[in-house]
Structures are given as C-alpha cells and as structure tokens.
UniProtKB/TrEMBL annotation:
Annotated residues for binding of ATP: 94, 145
Main location: cytoplasm
Pathway membership: Purine metabolism; AMP biosynthesis via salvage pathway; AMP from ADP: step 1/1
Keyword Cytoplasm (UniProt): yes
Subunit annotation: Monomer.
Gene3D superfamilies in UniProt: P-loop containing nucleotide triphosphate hydrolases (3.40.50.300)
Subcellular location(s) per record: Cytoplasm
Family annotation (CDD domains): ADK
Protein name: Adenylate kinase
Length: 167
C-alpha cells in the first residue's frame, strides 16, 4: 500500500518516499491510518493478510484496538525466520533478476538501506514477537526452506487456525 502511494504520487506517497529509500520506518500514525481506512472498505469478508504490518508495538496496539472495535480476531501472526546473511543474498538476487529481465531495481534494494532496515527490525519490530507470544497468536515458520515448503506451512497454519475464529 505504501509503495502504491509512492507510485501514484499521493500526498502520503510524497511524504514517505524518502523515508522508505533510507530504510527507516514510516511514522506509525501514517501506516495506522492507512490500514484502518483499508479495513473500513469491508471487501474482506473472506479474511485478509496484513503483510509487513504491524512493525512496531505502537502499530500492534493500534491494530488490536481497530480489530476489537470491529469485532474481528486475528487467526495467527506469522514470523518468517531467516538468517541475515541469506536475507542479503536474497535481496541481491532480486536486484540481479530484475535487471536481467530488463527492469529497474527497487530503490531500497541496496546494502546501505538494507542494513538500516535490519536495524529497524531489531530495534522496533522484534519486540512484537513477545507481544504476540503473550497473546498466543505467534507462529514461527522457518523461512530458510524453499518457497513451496514455506507456502505450504503458512497455508497449513491458516487452515488449522482460521475455522471458527470470527467472533
Ligand atoms: N508497518 C510499517 N511501518 C512503517 N514503515 C513501513 C511499514 N511497512 C512498510 N514500511 C516502509 O516501507 C518499506 C518497504 O517495506 P515493504 O514493502 O514491506 O518491504 P518488503 O516488500 O521488502 O517486505 C520499509 O522499509 C518501510 O520504510
């Protein structure tokens, strides 16, 4: 959603473009508002996946409040666990593949930005693991497996946990 806002050149997009290029987190109020507006569209009757949100404890608290207000409960919070060295290799492969296909690499796919993104993860996002562990919503999936195995495991988790979870 943030990338779409940048591409479309909306007011929010212009506000967050440089922050994303630096690999820092966009302010909580901006992302919280974006997610809240999206959930209000109510075209998600069959459910939704929030990819990359929440990324801070403040965002998680805001999400908890948003969902409580709407009487919705999370089925699961999925942590994809991957070694940092592999993450850098994957990012570099993504750049190489994109360039080989004649495309343009993402402006935040470079080592400097990546180091800052990992830093933001360690300082701001990792504390969420405890937040969701305490709420018994956290499931950790080994992201070092191949793409198909990761996908299958996530699907299994969601199938196991989604039935009857709506309030
Ligand atoms: N929940 C969030 N809170 C704050 N910033 C975010 C959030 N999600 C994405 N961003 C911003 O967008 C950038 C790209 O994130 P994202 O598109 O999720 O990356 P990827 O697709 O590589 O997982 C982040 O580095 C950050 O600047």
């Amino acid at each position: 959603m943030l990338r779409a806002a940048v591409t479309e050149g909306t007011e929010t997009g212009r506000r967050v473009d440089a922050i994303m290029d630096r690999g820092e987190l966009v302010p909580d109020d901006v992302v919280n508002q974006m997610v809240s507006d999206r959930i209000d569209q109510e075209d998600w009757r069959k459910g939704f996946i929030l990819d990359g949100f929440p990324r801070t404890v403040a965002q998680a608290e805001s999400l908890t409040a948003m969902l409580e207000q709407r009487g919705v409960r999370l089925d699961a919070v999925i942590e994809l666990k991957v070694d940092e060295t592999s993450l850098v290799e994957r990012m570099e492969k993504r750049v190489a593949d994109t360039l080989a296909a004649g495309g343009t690499a993402r402006s935040d796919d470079n080592r400097d930005t990546f180091v800052r993104r990992l830093d933001a993860y360690r300082n701001k996002t990792e504390p969420l693991l405890d937040y969701y562990r305490r709420r018994r919503e956290l499931i950790t999936v080994d992201g070092m497996q191949g793409i198909d195995d990761v996908a299958r495991e996530i699907e299994d988790v969601l199938t196991r946990r989604s039935s009857g979870s709506r309030r």
